[in-house]
Design brief:
- With about 450 residues, this protein is an alpha/beta fold.
- The chain has two domains: about 350 residues, Alkaline Phosphatase, subunit A, CATH 3.40.720.10; about 90 residues, 2-Layer Sandwich (Arylsulfatase, C-terminal domain), CATH 3.30.1120.
- It is about 30% helix and about 15% strand.
- It has 13 helices and 15 strands.
- The protein has an eight-stranded mixed sheet, with helices on one face. Strands 12-13-14-15 form a four-stranded antiparallel sheet, with helices on one face. Strands 8-3-11 form a three-stranded mixed sheet.
- Helix 2 packs parallel to helix 10 and helix 6 runs parallel beside helix 8.
- The longest helix is centred in the middle third of the chain and has 32 residues.
- The protein starts with 5 loop residues before the first strand and ends in a 5-residue tail after the last helix.
Length: about 450
């Protein structure tokens, strides 16, 4: 490698994998991300290792799972817990060994007191700066008071999506004027609810044209209590698809608006630096139910709508475009990948794997055959989950409620819980044993006591 690459790392919040144009499942228009996907390597089985923004983002900075850090849920919502302290490892600091300029823009979620400059970033543009900007330039604007969103009265140029994009373009211009390579992390807070698209995107999708999610036929038969309870917590227990369709239309709209903002960044890139010497990464911290399984937001579930994420890596003339179907973790696997590309030491405590072998050879026979996703509670009470997903099966260990077992080949929408089917006892036993081994290797404290081991390994569950 003669010249170290620049790295443009774009992270969004609560983007469903299936709600992007290039996935070709729902009528969401994302032309700029479609182009990025066509030029890069798309991971069709990328997963969030803990589908809550704070824990996921702390892991991304540090390279370990939240259970090893103490960041079990968002520090701003629930019982007080630790956050990732500045003295902990941050891979962004390692880039200083190669003289990288580093910048961070937008959503944080790593620590309530310390911003990104305490974790190895030279510059940090915080979300609160947008609030100040908006108060000065558009003081009459009133944000939505409902989680269901609304049509925004903000002109597009004042929208947070496009403010974030302009900050990214400004930083790219500044960093590219210097001799050093750069890392810029751009963290959009969209399409997280409440969705408030501005014109023209607020009118792009009519509710009548929004197809019903297949999982909307959910009956909650043999499902954990908390799922049906979640409907009552959000007060959506009586919502029909006609109630949900406008909400989903706004979700589509803010995704297309977000795509437009990302497009501005990507089309500006060649003005400042050589695109063939720039790694562009796009992903999300987790997905969103948005009416899937009749539920809202995320939390308490391990459905694909929430745990599966979009993940694209583009590096012109270096990474061959295509699709990789292997199981990957976006936030756990990226740190060792980036360090390997830059010929930097990879810490032994990292819990992800470098994706470099997959990038070079999309089919790796000895690559991981499953993903493990965890959840520890928040928002409506503590509720612990551990999930293992293979090519065919998904098993969810709900420590305080009924477990879940889904055949993803015959039931891709996860509507039929097979946990009580005696014909699946052998596969269930194998999944539980594999889950235990993986959790134990990762140092997950939940399997360190005899009661939980007994529950998982011996199937001592109702």
């Amino acid at each position: 490698m003669d010249k170290l690459p620049n790295i443009l790392l774009i992270t969004v919040d609560q983007q469903r994998y299936d709600c992007l144009g290039f996935v070709k499942k729902y009528p969401v228009q994302t032309p700029h991300l479609n182009q990025l996907a066509a030029e890069g390597l798309c991971f069709s089985n990328a997963y969030s290792h803990l589908p809550v923004c704070g824990p996921a983002r702390q892991s991304f900075i540090n390279g370990r799972r939240p259970e090893c850090i103490g960041g079990l849920w968002n520090y701003s919502g629930g019982l007080k817990i630790p956050a990732l302290e500045p003295q902990e490892y941050s891979w962004a600091r390692s880039l200083k060994e190669k003289n990288y300029e580093t910048g961070y823009i937008g959503k944080w979620g790593v620590h309530p007191q310390y911003d990104a400059t305490f974790y190895g970033f030279d510059q940090c543009v915080q979300e609160k700066e947008y609030t100040q900007y908006l108060n000065e330039r558009y003081p009459e604007y009133s944000a939505s008071t409902s989680y269901f969103g609304k049509k925004s009265t903000l002109p597009l140029e004042y929208a947070k999506t496009h403010w974030t994009a302009e900050k990214a373009i400004t930083m790219m211009k500044e960093f590219s004027s210097k001799e050093a390579p750069w890392l810029i992390r751009v963290n959009f807070s969209e399409p997280h609810l409440p969705c408030e698209p501005s014109e023209p995107f607020s009118d792009w999708y009519h509710p009548d044209d929004v197809p019903m999610w297949p999982s909307f036929t959910e009956t909650f038969t043999n499902k954990p209590y908390i799922q049906k309870q979640q409907l009552h917590n959000w007060e959506v227990q009586d919502f029909t698809w006609e109630d949900w369709a406008p909400v989903v239309a706004r979700y589509y709209g803010i995704i297309s608006q977000l795509d437009d903002a990302i497009g501005r960044i990507l089309t500006s890139l060649p003005q400042f630096t050589d695109p063939s010497n720039t790694i562009v990464i796009y992903t999300s911290d987790h997905g969103d139910l948005c009416g899937g399984h009749r539920m809202m937001d995320k939390h308490y579930v391990m459905y694909e709508e929430v745990v599966k994420v979009p993940f694209i890596i583009s590096w012109a003339n270096t990474i061959k475009p295509g699709t990789c179907d292997q199981f990957v973790y976006n936030f756990l696997d990226l740190p060792p990948t980036i360090l390997e590309w830059l010929h930097l030491p990879i810490p032994s405590f990292f819990q992800g794997e470098s994706l470099v072998p997959l990038v070079e050879n999309h089919l790796m026979p000895d690559w991981r055959k499953e993903v493990i996703v965890t959840y520890n509670g928040q928002q409506f009470g503590l509720y612990t989950q551990r999930m293992i997903r293979t090519a065919r099966w998904k098993y969810v260990w709900n420590l305080t409620d009924v477990d879940e077992l889904y055949n993803l080949k015959s039931d891709p929408d996860e509507l039929i819980n097979l946990i009580y089917e005696s014909s699946h006892e052998n596969i269930l036993k194998k999944l539980r044993e594999t889950l235990f081994v993986e959790l134990d290797l990762q140092g997950d404290g939940i399997v360190k006591n005899q009661w939980m081991r007994n529950q998982l390994l011996n199937g001592n569950k109702l």
